[in-house]
């Protein structure tokens, strides 16, 4: 049984019916977690907002506050983020990342994903929400809390408003692929030209540039960047390029590596991916993840033991999730744990 999907079922109960069922599930000492996950995991952002408004009208109480008072642990955190308006949720995730002080590349990925794996309108809404919630601009926060070597890139990404239609100039793609190649070869990744190209060109133009780079120089650009150096800027640039060129590959690698399994990140990732591509991230990631799993199965036993010692899940568990669809990227990883505890 597939527990949660961004796509709502064909027949959707009214917000009042959903609110009533949620109220019953949240009554008394025994909370029916499966009902809560099932209902909210099958509602998109608009439907969840209607449930939130209806619940407030019917019971004179915020459903978010009710969930927080009755739930605990990971489920409490997941549902709190899941019921937030997407721009506010992402603004809070960015603030959580920046509050860590010297956030590492893994933590800063959330900013890159919002800027490069989301629509321009969503990025704008996140910037507005950040200002409203934290009384400063996102750009100010990045300047004060991110190391200087990464500021130029992140500021360029979050302050840009890209053209969101398919418009490609192949001559520009050819010339800018050459500019990127020169910067990579000379190990000058912080060039203004590199930052400008990656932060302002529309995604379709950049994909054409990356394609031209691979055709001309016989290596994907993200691999070329990593071969030119493994500093923080190079690592973050690789994330930028993957989020633009092949976000499903980026998310599959992150999830399989165990770096990004927090439920609120999964909520944001899947929802915005579907909004941009009209394709389920479940299917896109499975198409990437299953070959990766099969490749890992060919690793020698010593390598596999090393991976397990580093805290990564077993291949059997990952294969089972990917093939059966139990990997629920809509922020409802919790439902898998509840329904299939033997997998974890």
Explain briefly what this protein structure is.
The protein is mainly α and 344 residues long. The chain has 21 helices and no strands. The model is unreliable at 1-6 and 292-344 (pLDDT under 50).
Describe the sheet with the most strands. Answer: none
Task: Give the averaged pLDDT, no decimals.
Answer: 77
Catalogue the unreliable spans. 1-6, 292-344
Q: By helix and strand content, what is the structural category?
A: mainly alpha
Q: What letter string, H or E per element, gives the SSE order?
A: HHHHHHHHHHHHHHHHHHHHH
List the helices and strands and how they pair.
Elements: H1 15-25, H2 33-41, H3 45-59, H4 63-70, H5 73-82, H6 86-98, H7 105-116, H8 120-134, H9 138-145, H10 148-159, H11 170-185, H12 192-200, H13 203-217, H14 221-227, H15 232-245, H16 247-257, H17 263-277, H18 281-297, H19 301-309, H20 315-324, H21 333-339
Helix pairs in contact: 1-2, 1-3, 2-21, 4-5, 5-17, 6-7, 6-8, 7-15, 9-10, 10-12, 11-13, 14-15, 15-16, 16-18, 18-20
């Amino acid at each position: 049984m597939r527990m949660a999907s961004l796509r709502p079922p064909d027949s959707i109960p009214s917000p009042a019916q959903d609110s009533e069922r949620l109220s019953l599930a949240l009554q008394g000492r025994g909370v029916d977690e499966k009902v809560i996950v099932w209902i909210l995991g099958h509602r998109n952002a608009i439907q969840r907002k209607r449930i939130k408004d209806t619940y407030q009208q019917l019971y004179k109480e915020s459903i978010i506050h009710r969930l927080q008072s009755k739930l605990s642990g990971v489920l409490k955190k997941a549902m709190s983020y899941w019921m937030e308006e997407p721009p506010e949720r992402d603004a809070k995730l960015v603030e959580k990342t920046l509050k860590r002080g010297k956030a590492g590349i893994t933590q800063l990925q959330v900013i890159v994903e919002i800027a490069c794996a989301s629509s321009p309108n969503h990025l704008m809404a996140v910037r507005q929400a950040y200002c409203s919630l934290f009384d400063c601009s996102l750009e100010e926060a990045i300047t004060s809390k991110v190391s200087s070597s990464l500021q130029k890139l992140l500021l360029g990404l979050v302050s840009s408003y890209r053209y969101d239609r398919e418009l490609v100039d192949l001559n520009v793609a050819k010339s800018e692929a050459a500019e990127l190649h020169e910067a990579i070869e000379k190990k000058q990744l912080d060039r203004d030209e590199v930052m400008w190209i990656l932060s302002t060109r529309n995604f379709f133009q950049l994909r054409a540039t990356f394609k031209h780079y691979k055709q001309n120089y016989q290596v994907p650009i993200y691999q070329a960047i990593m071969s030119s150096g493994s500093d923080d800027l190079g690592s973050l640039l690789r994330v930028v390029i993957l989020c633009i060129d092949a976000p499903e590959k980026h998310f599959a690698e992150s999830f399989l590596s165990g770096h990004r399994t927090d439920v609120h990140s999964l909520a944001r990732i899947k929802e915005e991916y579907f909004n941009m591509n009209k394709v389920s991230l479940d299917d896109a990631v499975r198409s990437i993840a299953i070959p990766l799993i099969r490749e890992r199965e060919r690793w020698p036993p010593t390598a596999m033991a090393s991976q397990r010692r580093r805290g990564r899940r077993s291949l059997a568990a990952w294969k089972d999730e990917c093939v059966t669809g139990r990997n629920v990227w809509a922020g409802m990883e919790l439902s898998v744990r509840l329904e299939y505890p033997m997998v974890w």
